[in-house]
Amino acid sequence: EFALTSPEKSSTKEAEGKETTAEEELDSEVLEVFHPTHEWQALRPGQAVPVGSHVRLNLQTGAREVKLQEEDKFRSNLKALKKGKRLDINTNTYTSQDLKSALAKFKEGAEVESSKEDKARQAKVKRLFRPIEELKKDFEELNVVIETDMQIMVRLINKFNSSSSSLEEKIAALFDLEYYVHQMDNAQDLLSFGGLQVVINGLNSTEPLVKEYAAFVLGAAFSSNPKVQVEAIEGGALQKLLVILATEQPLTAKKKVLFALCSLLRHFPYAQQQFLKLGGLQVLRSLVQAKGTEVLAVRVVTLLYDLVTEKMFAEEEAELTRETSPEKLQQYRQVQLLPGLREQGWCEITAHLLALPEHDAREKVLQTLGALLATCRDRYRQDPQLSRTLVSLQAEYQALATLELQDGEDEGYFRELLGSINSLLKELR
């Protein structure tokens, strides 16, 4: 079959393959009108068809055939819908009224009550999860408890500085504060609200425990933190620390104060200059010569060793690499530490500390003697007690080093101490 797609045309000149319209058929005074259906039907000669009908020529039979258009079928479907009949869905065509009707049914379906299965699921969810209102209340309570480090430090400083706080509460606040200021950022944040100065002022307290724990906090805050060290010097911390060391105080308080002093002086040449100007070497000399202060004496000697070697390394590094800033190098060169040690009698004081019984203390004293050798060589040679002590220690550590070798330790601890003693004896001959 071959179908002509024009809905308003039929062929009247079949032999020539030309088309004529349905209106031309009516013009031929045809009296009979053919009523097409949705199926192809043969059209007899002389029959007329309604406007808009499909007409085609069947090439196999030579007859003309006709049927209704699809929109007529759609209209019939709408008529059937109005009569309550089922819509023919094969047309795949919907009107706006159809869409509105479908949408209304969709909304009605959404408002239908949940099935028993849905209700059971909702009940299970309620058992497993708490209402959002309860969670909000819990979060509000947690927000009160959770504090930043800054907020905690402010609260601890306020507690320590409050006149209504007991001695135990003040000590507890300082003890907790020391934990936080170990972090460099926290220690610097302590400056932003004046907390550092409050702790420094705590060194003036008449309570030895307050002095002790205030120094404990300061020592942690000063450690490797130049910004805090500078603020501490400007806040008068150095003077207050030296006053405590120079006066009668419990040994535990002096330990913490000495710790804070060491943290303040290390890697801070300006503070070292001020330390010398304020008579710091004299204060330390009196400290180590007092009875029952052997533990402090070892710490003082260690501090002096660190300061001497730090200055020496800074100057050597500047000459080799030129990386040290000119200002800092100039500050180190202004620290007249070695001449001050010689003038204050530290050559003899350090040599006498070699008689301490602990191996660790002897090690630190030997290191300091080596660092002061260039400055104190003649003083060492004039001290007969130092020579006797070195010879005695040489024999002792020779025996201990031999035992280490027998145990398979070629480079043991006692062998290193023996090497330091042999080097000193060689230099002093």
Automatic annotation (TrEMBL):
GO molecular function: adenyl-nucleotide exchange factor activity
InterPro entries hit by this protein: ARM-like (IPR011989), ARM-type_fold (IPR016024), Hsp70_NEF-Inhibitors (IPR050693), Nucleotide_exch_fac_Fes1 (IPR013918)
Keywords, ordered alphabetically: Endoplasmic reticulum, Glycoprotein, Protein transport, Signal, Translocation, Transport
GO cellular component, one term: endoplasmic reticulum lumen
Pfam family, any one: Fes1
Its biological purpose: Required for protein translocation and folding in the endoplasmic reticulum (ER). Functions as a nucleotide exchange factor for the ER lumenal chaperone HSPA5.
Protein name: Nucleotide exchange factor SIL1
Species: Crocuta crocuta
